[in-house]
Write a structure and sequence with these properties.
elongated, ten-stranded mixed beta sheet, 621 residues, Rossmann fold, alpha/beta, 19 helices, 3 domains, 43% helix
Length: 621
């Protein structure tokens, strides 16, 4: 801001000993040399001369777009050549309006949005901004074209939009670089009186007279940095139209980038749902239960004689044989998990196995009785009292057939257990006495211990009992057993993490390339924004908002689809993954990844845009 005394100073801008040189390889090119210049307050100044004489360079220096090699520049009592880049940007936003020779409108924005750009840096609310924008466009004769984009306007109309953008902030200086080249004679007259500016500097390569004009105060508008308390809107929301317009300028690129992000988070959601469902299966296993298997592997049976010995081990509360039957209903495509157990002991080992008293009694008394999970009953429409045939892919009966007849005596549910609701259990005695081969083998033995804290000690006692025998055992908690069983199929966690990492890495490359290419294509537009007063930090924020908006929208759509898919897949796979679905933790993790990937993919392009020099950026097309 200018000091109070400067208001009485008849000179609005002073240049003393100003020189500007450019380095081209080893050659130093002088443009301005030891220039002393006073610009009187309230005057209209025309800079005339041939191309290359330094007119644009002088305008750039006056507007704070470039810095002199030597010398000082004061505008309204403020030494602008001494200001930092950020303060210089703030000063331009408050004091300078620019009209460019090549219009420099943002092609993705309407005339209204283009003129509004400088006002986005003020505290004015949306309604106040629109009022000023419409006034400025009406002043230049485009009140009926406010919703048109630059490609829908003629060259002269584009230039008038540029003039409206320059005057909308009621600037102290209006700097124009050949602003009337595309205007007709009537429209090409001095645009300054409509703006209420104190000073206009105008460069033209044509011959003409410098005309002066009196200052017209524009008292109806608040100063750019002012406004009634509470009229401003949150910075990010007022920039969103610009962010979305920039994202949508290349529709095909946006589509492919969006799809890559969507697919990445869709796969992340489904893979994490699988991971958590497997983890749940392990965590739901009873801490006070042990499973005994042959030390060689799960498929090698243990002698039935081990069962009574296990029951006699100190710390064992109950135990049951669990011999694998397999099971097919009608044809091999309808596989069922079926095991044979001792009913009474089984219910002691698994107290969270829910049956009615009548069903429990029938299970214990009916030699051919079978209890089925609720999922099986729903799937096949089975009911208590029904007789069903089940085939085994492994075992044969004494008569050589592979089909056993079972009486459904109960439909079980479970509470807080790792038992699958899609399984079935029947009497081991019926199974053992009917076998053609493989009799008196216990398969696994499920054990419930007296004290969960003593589980490892009891397991060690059991394994020690059968050490150095022909059938050594390996006993572990149910939780450890399930985890080991899953690990036999491979390190599921590592596989899922590896797949997710590969997917996200590919997404990062695609998104980072899209954001970087988008920034490179609009280098000139970034220079325009900086000219209008957008500082380096604001440019940084704009680019980051673009990358983060893209990852957030794509990520949320992807997770939403994963949630829908998990419901469908969970219903289809409920026999095997009863808890399959997306959890709150998955959504929170996904949101964190969206923010992180948005930051990572946008940071380097944002820093590049932030560091662009205005003069260099404006030269690019």
């Amino acid at each position: 801001m200018a000091v109070e005394s400067s208001k009485l100073d008849p000179v609005v801008a002073r240049l003393r000993g100003v020189a500007k040189q450019y380095q081209r390889g080893n050659e130093v090119v002088p443009v301005l040399e030891k220039l002393d210049l006073d610009l009187p307050r309230g005057d209209f100044v025309a800079l005339m001369g041939p191309s290359g004489s330094g007119k644009t360079t002088l305008l750039n220096l006056l507007g704070g777009l470039d810095r002199p090699t030597t010398g000082t520049i004061e505008v309204d009592g403020l030494a602008i050549d001494k200001l930092s880049n950020s303060k210089l940007g703030d000063w331009r936003a408050d004091n300078v309006g620019f009209v460019f020779q090549m219009y420099n409108l943002l092609p993705v924005l309407t005339a209204e949005r283009n003129v509004e750009l400088p006002l986005l840096l003020t505290r004015l609310g949306r309604a106040d901004r629109l009022k000023r924008v419409h006034t400025a466009l009406t002043l230049v004769g485009l009140g009926d074209r406010i919703k048109h984009k630059p490609r829908e306007l003629s060259g002269g109309q584009e230039q008038r939009v540029g003039i409206a953008r320059a005057i909308v902030t009621d600037p102290t200086l209006l700097l124009c670089d050949e602003p009337t080249g595309d205007l007709d004679r009537k429209s090409g007259r001095d645009p300054r009186p409509a703006a209420g500016v104190e000073q206009a500097a105008w460069q033209d390569h044509r011959h003409g007279d410098a005309r002066s004009a009196r200052r017209r105060a524009c008292q109806s508008h608040a100063a750019p940095g002012e406004g009634p308390p509470g009229t401003g809107d949150f910075l990010m929301f007022r920039w969103l139209p610009l962010v979305w317009a920039n994202l949508g300028r290349r529709k095909l690129r946006l589509t492919f980038t969006f799809i890559s992000i969507l697919l990445a988070f869709l796969m992340f959601g489904l893979l994490d749902a699988l991971r958590t469902s497997l983890s749940d299966a392990v965590n739901l296993a009873g801490a006070d239960r042990l499973l005994l298997q042959n030390k060689i592997n799960l498929t090698v049976p243990n002698p039935l004689a081990y069962y009574e010995k296990v029951r006699a081990v100190e710390g064992v509360r109950a135990a049951t044989v669990m011999a694998w039957f397999g099971g097919m209903y009608k044809d091999p495509s309808q596989q069922i998990q079926v095991q044979s157990v001792y009913p009474e002991q089984f219910l002691e080992v698994y107290p969270d196995f829910l049956l009615t008293p009548a069903e429990i009694t029938a299970f214990k008394q009916d030699r051919r009785g079978i209890v089925i999970g609720k999922l099986l009953a729903d799937k096949y429409g089975w009911k208590v009292g029904q007789t069903i045939p089940l085939r085994s892919s492994i075992w044969r009966k004494l008569d050589g057939s592979d089909t056993w007849q079972f009486n459904i005596v109960g439909i079980y549910d479970v509470k807080g257990s790792g038992i699958n609701k899609g399984s079935a259990f029947f009497n081991f005695d019926y199974f053992n006495e009917s076998l053609q081969f493989g009799k008196d083998n216990a398969g696994m033995i499920a054990i419930r211990v007296e004290n969960a804290a003593e589980s490892d000690k009891v397991a060690n006692r059991i394994d020690a009992l059968f050490a150095n025998s022909s059938s050594e055992t390996k006993t572990a908690t149910e939780r450890a057993f399930l985890k080991r069983f899953l690990d036999q199929m491979g390190n599921i966690g590592l596989i899922l993490v590896s797949v997710t990492t590969a997917v996200f890495f590919t997404m990062l490359l695609v998104t980072a390339n899209a954001v970087a290419e988008s920034v490179r294509e609009r280098t000139n537009e970034i220079g325009v924004l900086k000219t209008l007063g957008f500082g380096g930090r604001q440019i940084l924020l704009l680019v980051l908002l673009e990358s983060m908006s893209l990852t957030l929208v794509g990520g949320f759509v992807g997770l939403g689809l994963a949630w829908v898919a998990s419901i469908i897949l969970g219903e289809l796979a409920k026999d095997y993954f009863p808890s399959f679905g997306l959890r709150d933790a998955t959504f929170l993790m996904g949101f964190g990844l969206m923010l992180a990937f948005g930051l990572i993919t946008g940071l380097w392009p944002a820093l590049t845009a932030m560091r662009l020099k205005i003069v260099d950026a404006l030269r690019r097309t």
